[in-house]
Amino acid sequence: MIELVIFFVILSLTVTYKFFVGEIVMRTTFIEQLVAYAHQDASVYLLTADLGYSVIEPFKQAFPDRFINVGIAEQNMIGIAAGLAMRGKKVIAYSIIPFITMRCFEQIRNNICYQNMTVKLVGVGGGLSYGSLGHTHHAIDDIAIMNVLAHMNIVAPASRYEAQALIPDFFSQPGPGYLRLANTDETFSYSELCRPQLGKAFEIIPHDEHLIIATSNALDLAYKVQTELAALGVDMGLVSAHTLKPFDGDFFEQKKATLKTVITIEEHSVIGGLGSIVASVLQAQNMHYVALKVFGIRDVYAHTAGNRKDLLELVGLTPCVIVNAIQRNNSIGAV
What we know:
It is a single chain. The chain has twelve helices and twelve strands. The protein has 335 residues and is of the alpha/beta class. It folds into two domains: 181 residues, 3-Layer(aba) Sandwich (Rossmann fold), CATH 3.40.50; 131 residues, Rossmann fold (3-Layer(aba) Sandwich).
């Protein structure tokens, strides 16, 4: 019995350490930006449902009267956030993604979105970031859930660089918002000429005809795919769709005369996520001639626990699988 307890303690510490190292950059950026925002605006409040330790302390120490830990009560947290917003406060509610989006969905819909309250939901652990903790902690349907809510804006930065540029404007926007933070490898660097802007598609590698569009922590994977395709003589651009709602339809409009192929990659279900959003925009703009291929997690749950890398291989989100699928696909064969 003692050996079993020791095993689970070591496993828990290992999981926590790996996730903390992998995502600390993104979460640290969030809290740095939030503290700076709160120094400028005395109406900013931070709520948490007994999560975020080793992250939220700078805010708690700087503004103890504007920090509320509601305990393990996410539905109650949303009610409190809505009440504060009704009194003119600007509220940030923080938790891991399944808890901040799914456990309290009805309260988000009725208390925040229906009344168009200025409450920002900040969720950590996008995609399979919390892979080792099992399917209850996998965030593979959050974008779809948040996207269906009226007034809800969705921002999913792919890196610390994007988060630094986007979070201040995200905080300052009126109305509801959802910020998706995730475990990222950050395997590439941005050109100094590239500067992400909230609400605008971020074209990292320009191309007028053929594009790979990714969001959140799938951008690293998309970059690897783009690089491997280039080595095979297949030239494609790379775009970060950090603002998912409202989506930048003007980006496609500007390429209407030249765009031929769009490939989307996301660490999320293919139902209701980036691929669905892009398909909807292309249809609305009558760009039916554009070949669209969507890569993400199929209509399944992972019935196993493991690290993010292993789970991505399990669901087929690897450079090798995607590159081979693109080469086999006749509709994109002319890329």
